[in-house]
Amino acid sequence: MKSSIPTTTTSTLLTLFLLSAFTSHLPSAGADAVTDRDGAAIRNGGTYHILPLFGVKNGGLELAATRNETCPLTVVQSRTAQIFRGLPVRISSPYRIAYISEGLILNLAFASSPSCAPTPPNWTVVKGLPEGQGVKLLGYGRSTVSGWFKIEKSSLEYLYKLVFCARASKACGEIGISVDDEGINRLVLTEEEGDGIIVEFMKASSVSA
User: Which residue positions does the secretion signal occupy (predicted)?
Assistant: First the structure.
């Protein structure tokens, strides 16, 4: 028996459903814009150095080849003083907005990466690693957790924390640092609230294509 629901009605219902699912992750109207260290609002699609602060030594964020990796796919905190700012990170949202707000769904990706790394060099979280759930480049190929990143305000004024939310469970955790037996500061998903790193953002002056 054919459905008695007109095609136009079905299309309208589907559109409303998709719109509801899409907008359910929008931040509230009162959400504050995320700002860089100079007080400027972070632009959607802009490139910034992410700088961990307080209690963690060294510099910004970059890539490293860890354990049996033949290509640097692991997101780590730089140990090299000469590049203390780390690699520029592109901060973007799928929503058509000019600036990034707290709690907004985000994609984080290095503005450039080694030729052996996947393109674009988007961040993701991988489970089942010795250090727990680690931050690596999308395409790592092992137990990738589907989800998204977001930026939330920390307990300190004008400073922030990075958060990852799993799509399946809707559970969110802060991004922290785990030091391995080689002294590498790996970015990991923490289990306890307050264990994540506190960061600030510095606009990148130039970015390699």
Answer: 1-31
pLDDT number for residue 84: 76
pTM for the predicted model, two decimal places: 0.81
CB 38 within 8 A of CB 50: no
The structural domain count of the chain equals 1
- The domain that holds 196 is classified in CATH as 2.80.10.50
Q: Which domain holds residue 155?
A: 30-203
Whether 31 contacts 103, CB under 8 Å: yes
pLDDT tens by residue, 151-178: 999 988 889 999 999 999 889 999 999 9
Strand partners, 53: 198
CA dist 110 and 196 (Å) reads 20
Question: What Cα–Cα distance (Å) separates residue 161 from each residue in 23, 102, 113?
Answer: 23, 10, 24
Mean pLDDT, residues 38-65? 90
Tell me phi and psi for residue 48, to 5 degrees: -145, 150
